[in-house]
């Protein structure tokens, strides 16, 4: 579902203009795609920050200049110190259009007792309708035994979602953890005797 955002056309450019926009609680953005000329916009900082913070591949319905456009958030540039959004790239999309995006892979459930599972594929490239992009792809590991490998071909993708990732690519691997054997603690008495012998040798050398 698209989030409605009131945007403004941006006519000032450069670092100074960007700083002024951010002081006015606006985020500089550029909208491009479908062979159209880029459109430079300013977006309300607080609303957009909350959306991109909680939603990956966020879809925005932008109202500006008397019309509206549907846009997918493609890139968010942040200040690494303040964590403020400095700029956003937006991809123009149409309703009914499929887009290529990466979505996170998450697991649910518990594998068999005594086993652990590791996620080898943290995200997966998919194609989905711009208006129906899944937030994540969920893999159930409930009761899976040691040695089980869940591959891309085993994933249950939402209706209308496809992927071109190699079907044999491992996604989740279940295994029994191997603990390192603890080395035996050194015998404190033996260590003390060794230290005394070394001290006696030093005394003899000095004499």
Would you kindly provide a written description of the structure presented here, covering whatever features stand out?
The chain is α+β, with helices and mostly antiparallel strands. The protein has 2 domains: 3-93, Ribosomal Protein L25, Chain P, CATH 2.40.240.10; 100-175, RNA Polymerase Alpha Subunit, Chain A, domain 2 (Beta Complex). It is 18% helix and 42% strand. The protein is built from 3 helices and 13 strands; from the N terminus they run ββαββαβββββββββα. It has helices at residues 15-23, 45-54, 188-206, and strands at 3-6, 8-9, 26-33, 36-44, 59-64, 67-78, 85-93, 98-108, 116-119, 123-129, 136-140, 149-151, 170-175. A 7-stranded mixed beta sheet has the order 1-5-6-7-3-4-2. Strands 10-8-11 form a 3-stranded mixed beta sheet, with no helix packed on it. Strand 6 (67-78) and strand 7 form a beta hairpin. The mean pLDDT is 87. This is one of the proteins that binds to the 5S RNA in the ribosome where it forms part of the central protuberance. Keywords: Ribonucleoprotein, Ribosomal protein, RNA-binding, rRNA-binding. One of its GO terms (biological process) is translation. Residues 177-207 are annotated as: Disordered. Residues 182-207 have a biased composition (Acidic residues).
How widely separated are the two ends? 90 Å
Strand content: 35-45%
Q: Provide the domain count.
A: 2
Radius of gyration: 29 Å
Subunit structure: Part of the 50S ribosomal subunit; part of the 5S rRNA/L5/L18/L25 subcomplex. Contacts the 5S rRNA. Binds to the 5S rRNA independently of L5 and L18.
Protein name: Large ribosomal subunit protein bL25
Family: Belongs to the bacterial ribosomal protein bL25 family. CTC subfamily.
Keywords: Ribonucleoprotein, Ribosomal protein, RNA-binding, rRNA-binding
